[in-house]
Amino acid sequence: MTADDLVDLLDRAIAGGVVIHGDVLISLAGVDLIRLDLRALLAAVDTVAVELG
Amino acid sequence: MIRSSLPADANCPPRIHPDRETAVYAYAMTSPTTATAPLRVLTQGQLSLVVTDTNPGEFVEHAMLGLVRRHHDVVAALFQHATVLPLRFGTLFAHDDAAREMLLRCHDEAVATLATLADHREWGVRVRRPGAAPAAGLSGTDYLAMRRRERDGVHLHQRLMRHASRSTVRRDGNLKLDAVYLVPRIGEKAFLAEVGRIDGEVDTTGPWPPYSFSELRTAAG
């Protein structure tokens, strides 16, 4: 998988898909999971891009 | 498992306690189906939710990329044999009852949406335009060139839409076209042939499960 493929995947899995609220628990330990993973994932993408580049 | 007696509030969802050992991770909705361990299926009426029991403690930063890949691998595997409504990465329920309540709430809309997604796959198309985007302070010539590129992009989009059921177009000044199309399988050959006739540097991705076309008003409420 190239860095571009990975960005396409993250783009879909994190920004796409059905969003569920209400009963659903998308927060862990008081931290908004979506915010947490975006930050972590962008860092990871940078790392992969450097490795591939 | 003890449930809160307070009603769920969309603005303040209940939190999973970090010490909680299990939660229910949801991958996708499908028509009634079956699954093999570690996946499980919760079914209400004509709607199934594919889930797995997970430890919320797994969702730590350094593991996140692998977890996203796992999410996609499961959704993609389901998508090989069924129409799916992928859930956004990171959807966790405290227990099956909470997931079932969600299924009941959005049952009708989800079943109808699955019907519109049947036999379709998602394709992304990006067309680069030559040269860099002009900076602020466009000259008249730059402006006309920009407008021409925009028009070209719209024209390209219209050509591709002849073979697609739905689309989402992104505004990106550096690209002539950046769009995602929901294409019926029966029309994929024609769609890809049309993509192949585009002049310029074209980047096509797919086929994807319909991540970009999975929205449920009744689930978000």
General description of the model:
The complex is a heterodimer of chains A (53) and B (221). With 53 residues, chain A is mostly helical. Chain A has two helices and two strands, in the order H-E-E-H. In chain A, strand 1 and strand 2 form a beta hairpin. Helices cover 33% and strands 26% of the residues of chain B. The N terminus of chain B is likely disordered. In chain B, a hairpin with a 5-residue loop joins strand 7 and strand 8. In chain B, the strands form two sheets. In chain B, strands 1, 2, 3, 4 and 5 form a five-stranded antiparallel sheet that branches. Chain B starts with 22 loop residues before the first strand and ends with a helix. Chain B is elongated. Chain B is α+β, with helices and mostly antiparallel strands and 221 residues long. At the A-B interface, helix 1, strand 1 and helix 2 of A face strand 1, helix 1, strand 5, helix 2 and strand 9 of B.
Summarize the structure.
Chain A has 53 residues and is mostly helical. Chain A has one domain (3-52).
Strand content of chain B: 25-35%
Query: What is the number of independent domains of chain A?
Result: 1
Low-confidence stretches of chain B: 1-18
Radius of gyration of chain A: 13 Å
User: What's the tally of helices of chain B?
Assistant: 5
What's the main sheet of chain A like? 2 strands, antiparallel
Tally of individual domains of chain B: 2
The greatest inter-chain interface is formed by: A-B, 32 and 50 residues
Number of strands of chain B: 9
Overall mean pLDDT of chain B: 84
Q: How many angstroms does the end-to-end distance of chain A come to? A: 13 Å
Biggest sheet, spatial arrangement of strands of chain A: 1-2
Instruction: Return residue spans of chain A where pLDDT drops below 50 for at least 5 consecutive residues.
Output: 22-37
Shape category of chain A: rod-shaped
- Subunit arrangement of the protein: heterodimer
Distance between the terminal alpha carbons of chain B, to the nearest Å? 24 Å
In N-to-C order, the SSE pattern of chain A is HEEH
* Percent strand of chain A: 5-15%
Tally of separate helices of chain A: 2
